[in-house]
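Tutorial, part two.
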Amino acid sequence: MYQVRGCNSESSCFACFIKEKNPLVVVLIVVGAVFGLIMVLGIIAAIAIPAFVGYRTKAGNAMAQAEIKNACNSAAAILAEHPDKTITLDDFKKSGVNASPDVELSIADGSRDNLTIGAKHSKGNRVYVADKNCNIKEIQP
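Running the prediction step on this input gives:
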């Protein structure tokens, strides 16, 4: 059996080889491990980042739906008390509906017979419209 100078049979042959013959092997192993780690992290990032963007879009859409439902319920309560009133965004604020700054609420028609409220989140990809019966529909932006 080949024996490296300074190593005895009790020590690891690989450790002795690295110690005596070629410290460059250690450098190559470390560089290879670091490169492999960077490659694995890149693959994980390539999978995770698009999924995160999709989740954020879904969350924005859900927030827009929740805001339009709150606004519609508030409008129904206001119109029940004041049937001849035309709803404005200020009426929502007065009744306690404080939409998120990222959600854009709009009122196309604030009358009792034709109430139409719209909502879209800045990070969402859908627009929601509620009618006088609080039926929420998704429309194409």
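Residues 40-139 form one domain. In part three we will examine how such features are distributed along the chain.
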